[in-house]
Amino acid sequence: MTNLTRAGFGTPLSRVDGPAKVTGQAQYAAEFQPEDMLHAHVHTARIAKGKITRIDVSRALAVEGVVDVLTHENRPKVAWFDLKYKDMTAPLRGSPFKALYDENVIFSGQPIALVVAETPEIARYASTLLDVDYKWAEFQTDLAQVLDQAFVPRIPRAGYHKPKSRGDGEQAFSDAPVQVSNRYHLSPEHHNPLEMFASTVIWEGDGHVTISDKTQGVKNSHWYICNAMGWDRDKVRILSPFVGGAFGSGLRPQYQLYLAALAAKKLERSVQVVMTRQEMFGHGYRPECYQTVSLGADREGHLKGIVNSAVTATSSIENYMETVVNWGSMVYRCPDAKLDYKIAKVDTATPCDMRAPGGATGMNLFEVAMDELAYACDIDPLELRLRNYTDREAMKDKPYTSKALHDCYERGAAKFGWDRRSHAPRSMRDGHELIGWGMATGIWEAMMAPTSARARLSADGTLEVATATADMGPGTYTMMTQIAADTTGLPVEKITAKLGDSDLPFSPVQGGSMTAASAGTAVQKACDALLEELLEAARRIEDGPLAGVDLDEVGFGDGRIYLIDDTKIGMRFEEILAAAEMDSLEATELAKPGIINMMRKARNTHSAVFVEVRVDEDVGMARVTRVVNAVAAGRIINPKTARSQILGGVVFGIGMALEEETLADHRIGRWMNHNLAEYHVPVNADVPDIDVLFVEEQDDEVNPIGVKGVGEIGVVGTAAAIANALFHATGKRVRELPITIDKLL
Amino acid sequence: MFRHPQTTPKGVETDDAIRVQLSVNGEPLDLDLPPWTSLLDLLRHRLALTGTKKGCDHGQCGACTVLVDGRRINSCLKLAVSLDGAEVTTIEGMAGEGGALHPLQDAFVRHDGFQCGYCTPGQICSAQGLLNEGHAQSREEIKELMSGNICRCGAYPNILDAIEDVLNDRVSEPRMPE
Amino acid sequence: MRRFSYSRPTEVSEALAEAGGEDVRFLAGGTNLVDLMKENVERPQHLVDITRLPLDRIEEIQSGLKIGALVLNSDLAHDPKVENRYPLLSLALLNGASPQLRNSATTGGNLLQRTRCYYFYDVATACNKRDPGAGCQAIGGLTRLHAILGASPHCIATHPSDMCVAMAALDAVVHVESATGTRTIPFEDFHRLPGDTPQRDTTLEPGELVTAVELPATRFDRHYTYLKLRDRQSYAFALVSVAAAMRLEDGVMTDVRLALGGVAHKPWRDRDAEALLSGKAPERALFSKAAEAILADAQGQGANDFKIELARRAIVRGLDQAARGTPQSVTDKRIA
């Protein structure tokens, strides 16, 4: 047993799936290639709203190698009832989008036909040969034009936290000696994971269907596609071992899954559908937002009244909502707050969760307002936050399971050198360059959801831990392996983690930064149960060294159960199985949060982000040159991969602050920069070295393993810190994200 | 070496097919290809070398980066027929004897130079191209010359650490949070 | 991608014999043509792959340097002769696209790059350049990328190349050949303004092949810059770029060259403005005057109005960089 890797909580283990990823062996959804598979290409609508009056597929069908063209006119029979199309994360109210269902077009870029052919090139070519006539209907894609029609849905979506006002926010604001009140805007953003959505439906021929799908939740895809197609749940299996990024776009099954299944059902053959990059702009996105923040304070900067209202976009068919206006009022002590959130319908696809949905939008914009207040009171922005600090969750006035935000401020500021900042805008420069230092607070949820995991010990002493979650990049394979190693004492090499398979025990979608807490706890419970059973087996081995011992007398380690008093006495796991005449031993456990406890205390991650920007005074080119992000996220399972999650969040924040914006031509209701050349995401040259700090946060209450999750907190606050740094550098307050060069001229 | 090579699909393109000789990861291949097949689609669909990724199919992300005669290019924008006679190296051809990881592959794992892993083969092939070119010495230069490879997960600082290690022929400690 | 036939001649004469048809295109690096074919914007029926033609050399000639049409952008950027005599060109090349694209893209292909206009690229919209007579939907629409100089009511697209901006400043000459003979085209006459025929980007005649670009012997190796302003630090097209070069003798500017990218249907040169600068000492006020002169007729389309001011500042800064002999670095993102 030399050179084996020991890992437990806190070990910076390199990703266990790293070698597969760096050698090209990791298999993503489009890389399942069954024999005789057909390739299908989507044809999308040119109009924003209306009807298809004629669709002529004859020219496409005439192309050699084209097998079929599916449209609403010839699709196989599918479920008609809306409920059959509700995936587990769909908004409760509304009618989910059904591709090729009828002649109606409800957004530009909507799939309206599927060309199925022997090769992808033929399918793509033939899809250009469809003749489609449309009848336009009136439409609106500009949120600004429908703000007066914004409404509060009667039934909110699951997971939405209704904002709770306190006292009389408006009165308190208007009575306050210092007031800032402004409207902020966030442009729509698209997730643009690097892997494009793909599904391969493998027609097994015996009534069984196996589907590789790009998804954040195989159980969700399974539920959805069985309902929509009327397929027997036991005969359908969804695989998603690797996901090339998703950032929320894979929470809901995307239309390529439905279309591939539809074609396979009709043709009774294996079919693959891969979206194009342009089509990646034809589904969910981070909705545009207008947010008004009014902050009233005394002259020392103590908040007296908050009035925070926001409107985000939803589609014509579903009520998509985010938790937008709560965050600032949760973080800061303030006696009176009025919060108001509404949605308004535009004729696009239904928006969907994108990395820290609502938080990235609401808190980033709120934190710009806080910076404005700091300058209105002539107080250092960090000092302003400290003066309004509270240990309680201020919106619902509840205690936290833990909140080490104060340490984040302190350690982040020290690392950054915040005390060397000069307060006045435009007061720091280096030649032509204006230097700006800005900061902001970040907050996100630390959730947990019911998850089952299975642990199975084989006769050779190897352990497999499994749950039907996903690994879209956070390092879930590694996290599961590490928790199993921590719990059982087995070396990493003896452990295999399995996920991304709908046949595995239930896991919710990977999202909300809750996978580590949920799947991690489930894996730990399953391993604990397995060890107990193993000990039980060992105790029953007559004449065995562990016969009759009690749990508190033994230790687990090195693949052995041994006596604590004399560690030389013990049995190897495989010896126990052999002696007990067992091929393997298995335990499955469900981990779920304690509901009562969850209601009693608030559970959140927090962060403090410090940023340096440099802006050329003449030409307005801005760049981020330094970032310190100090995070309080409970226990850190793996500092290496956890740091990477924060890096990723910060890079998302850089995109949000400076670059990302999906541009719509509202005259035709269409996104126009639907490619990665004109939709700018950060490239290597945009990203400085980023210091990630995790502050100590011992939390035995948030969940059994004390983990809060780090997938989203990195983006919350970062965009605001950049915007605030740009103000500090230039003296120009930009209240719209992204802050592109034209806004700094 | 090919996991499950696919034959040319039924009769659909033989009329247009053009004979092309390519060396892929050291293996000489005689292929009959329609002229519109991109090198990327050839690799992914016909040779089942799916390590090379399609991230945009328009030369805007770098996920499809491979080495052609030692130089990095976007395989999505290259018609395979136009490469007749060329030597192509993909991520599958990077590892050494017995599957030992290439120094870049090893450095990417150590420094966590990826998250979802989808851009990774392109990043690594691009990094090898950068090393072959010899124009990058400093971290800033690597940054600029790796900007043709988008990592939506934002692993850029770690990617730089990994490439710097190989460029300077060293094995440094991965950066840790404080 | 529309079906097409394909040939790969090895002699220029063979290639020219196949050229001329409306649906015939030459294929070199493919970085733009293949992209547009996938978008169904370009729909050739026949491709003549010219990558095997003997046009891939950089040659010393009496009048300067002759760059074969197939010289790769990366090779051209790093050629010692270019680096030494025309570092402006190296800089412009290295500011364009990505290393991978520069390893495929050729000199001739770069000359023939087509616009990045959203509407040109999206076949669901109307575009006179793609479909003559269809109308220009960019006008009144999203115009961030669009022209502020030389636009017409038929087209407001911009030329996206960086290389061409430097070549325009360097007074390059384009060599072309057709079945009937050869001719040379001064760089300024090679690209054209859209007028009422925006489908034509250049003055190339059907059947003509770009064989080389010639750079006059005049070196600009001390006072030059290529300043590119864009929406991110790398791998993005220019909002505005400035190629500037000059000679400075006894504190006086002579032979001033100034070309702008990202602002018009062609690299924009203004000889009157250059004349304004020539024979004078480099001063910011003078640079501003030149910028005013160049932009006197500039017109925004709404979303790109800012480019007029941006161009004004970029011109001043570019001239200043050139005069000071502090060219903009490609890797150091601080504006020099």
Oligomer: heterotrimer
How are the strands ordered across the major sheet of chain A? 3-5-1-11-8-9-10
The pair of chains with the biggest contact is: A-B, 76 and 71 residues
DSSP strand tally of chain C: 12
Q: What is the CATH topology descriptor of the domain at 223-324 in chain C? A: Enolase-like, domain 1
Main sheet overview of chain A: 7 strands, mixed
Report the helical percentage of chain A: 10-25%
Q: Helix/strand-derived class of chain A?
A: alpha+beta
At the fourth level of CATH, the homologous superfamily of the domain at 223-324 in chain C is: CO dehydrogenase flavoprotein, C-terminal domain
| Poorly predicted residue ranges of chain A | none
Strand content of chain A: 15-25%
Uncertain spans of chain C:
none
The CATH level-2 architecture of the domain at 223-324 in chain C is identified as 2-Layer Sandwich
The radius of gyration over CA of chain A amounts to: 27 Å
How are the strands ordered across the major sheet of chain C?
4-5-8-6-7
Task: Describe what you observe in this structure.
The complex is a heterotrimer of chains A (745), B (178) and C (336). In chain A, strands 3-5-1-11-8-9-10 form a seven-stranded mixed β-sheet. Chain A has a five-stranded mixed β-sheet with strand order 14-13-12-7-31, with helices on both faces. Chain A has 17 helices and 31 strands. In chain A, helix 11 packs parallel to helix 12 (515-539) and helix 15 crosses helix 16 (718-730). Chain A is 24% helix and 24% strand. With 745 residues, chain A is an alpha+beta fold. Chain A starts with 17 loop residues before the first helix and ends with a helix. Chain B contains five helices and five strands, in the order ββαβββαααα. Chain B has helices spanning 39-46, 103-110, 120-133, 139-145, 156-167; strands at 18-24, 27-33, 65-68, 71-74, 87-89. A five-stranded mixed β-sheet of chain B has the order 2-1-5-3-4, covered by helices on one side. In chain B, a hairpin with a 2-residue loop joins strand 3 (65-68) and strand 4. Chain B is elongated and about 65 Å long. Among the domains of chain C are: 5-51, Uridine Diphospho-n-acetylenolpyruvylglucosamine Reductase, domain 2 (2-Layer Sandwich), CATH 3.30.43.10; 223-324, CO dehydrogenase flavoprotein, C-terminal domain (Enolase-like, domain 1, 2-Layer Sandwich). Chain C has helices at residues 12-18, 33-38, 73-78, 80-85, 87-95, 99-102, 107-111, 118-121, 163-169, 187-190, 271-277, 284-295, 306-324; strands at 5-7, 24-27, 46-49, 58-61, 64-68, 173-178, 181-186, 209-216, 223-230, 238-249, 252-261, 268-269. The termini of chain C are far apart. In chain C, the strands form three sheets. Chain C has a five-stranded antiparallel β-sheet. A four-stranded antiparallel β-sheet of chain C has the order 9-10-11-12. The interface between A and B is large, with 76 and 71 residues.
